[in-house]
Amino acid sequence: MLKKIIYIVLLSLIFSWSLSSSRQKYKENPPGTLRLGDSLFIDRMPILTSNYIEFLKSVNSFYNEALHDSIQKMPLFGITDLDMIKLQQTFHGDSIEYIKMLTRTWMTYSNDEKKYDVDYHLNSSKYSNYPIVNISFEQMKHFCRWRTDMVKLYYATKCKTEKQRRKYPMNFVYRLVQRKEWESTLGVFFYDIKKSKNSSITKRDKPNNVISAYNFEKGRKFYYDVDNAAETLENAVVAFNFNWIKTVGLGDISYFKFDQPSDWVSFRCICEILPEKSK
After folding, report:
1. Using CA atoms, how far apart are residues 93 and 110, in angstroms rounded to an integer?
2. Whole-number mean pLDDT of the chain?
3. Which residues neighbour 15 within 8 Å (Cβ) at sequence distance 6 or greater?
4. pLDDT at 253 over 50
5. How many CB atoms lie within 10 A of CB 105?
6. Whole-angstrom Cα distance, residue 122 to residue 98?
7. Which of 115, 154, 161, 203 is spaced 20 to 30 Å from 67 by Cα?
8. Which stretches of 119-276 are assigned E, i.e. beta strand?
9. Among 21-25, 140-144, 177-181, whose mean pLDDT is lowest?
């Protein structure tokens, strides 16, 4: 474990230097992110239930495969509010996709009947600031694609001219974090990680709502609580051991294949800046 801690601290030194020595190219980071490198920006916190509900609302009302294809052909700037209204009127929700994207878990009802049903976290504002859990790998990927499209539209409506648009990334994608990127992140933001106050917590000791809401503490840039939810990485790998179900010391990281939704696994995105598309 000591070797892993040393490795993370070294990463912290290396990446902190690279961040401070690189000139900020864009007016602001992609929405919701912190800079990790010249072309990488990672989410400040895991995707919250409220974020995922916004995704579900879009799928249910106007976001579908046809709209996704259309966004790829739209101009990068100069889209008006009226254009956006017409866009939402032209495209309609996909009810089948909406049902597929609902997160689910085993629910126990008053008659003690157990049913694999829509996750209760989606149905109450109480869980708005909780990391989204019980989510499948496919649902995560669809969320990333939707988020990429929505930020493209955001930039296109925010900027009236090409000069204004070039102050923001021209080509990018939100996706799941890769393993090396995750380890680099832990190095860069090592001192922002919230340490566990109780190293003996187990699932048996916890109430049903085991994950906890994120309290947005002043001064913290990067939000990761080792006593909350683990995080899914690209290629269906989970960063295991940093979570409420098995609390261990900082620096002790292991990985395993993510094969089904779980109440202790969430995710966050990374925004990768890509080369500009040729005209």
Report:
1. 33
2. 83
3. 36, 37, 184, 187, 188
4. yes
5. 16
6. 13
7. 161
8. 172-176, 230-233, 237-240, 242-243, 246-247, 254-257, 265-267, 269-273
9. 21-25
Interval 48-59: pLDDT, tens: 999 999 999 999
- In contact, 107 and 114? CB cutoff 8 Å: yes
Burial of residue 268 (CB within 10 Å: 0-12, 13-18, 19+) is: buried
Reading the block at residue 237, the tokens are 């790998």
What's the gap between Cα 5 and its chain centre? 25
Q: Encode pLDDT of 62-90 as tens digits.
A: 999 999 999 999 999 999 988 888 888 89
- Quickly list H helices, the chain: 2-21, 49-61, 65-71, 81-90, 95-101, 137-158, 162-165, 179-188
Dist CA 82 CA 5 (whole Å) = 53
Q: Give yes or no for a contact between 64 and 206, defined as CB atoms under 8 angstroms apart.
A: no
> Is the separation of the CB atoms in 251 and 5 below 8 Å?
yes
CA dist list (Å): 142 to 58, 183, 279: 12, 24, 27
Residue pair 229/129 in contact by the 8 Å Cβ criterion: no
Q: Average pLDDT, stretch 161-183?
A: 95
DSSP assigned state of 276: P
Identity of the residue numbered 17: W
Q: Which residues of 50-87 are buried (b: 16+ CB within 10 A; e: fewer)?
A: ebbbebbebbbebbbeebeeebeeeebbebeeeeeeeb
Residue 102 carries which side chain, given as an amino acid letter? L
Per the document, the length of the chain is 279
At 64 the three-state DSSP class reads coil
In this predicted model, what pLDDT tens digit does every residue of 91-127 receive, in sequence order?
999 999 999 999 998 777 777 778 888 899 999 999 9
Looking at the chain, the number of H-run helices and the number of E-run strands are 8, 12
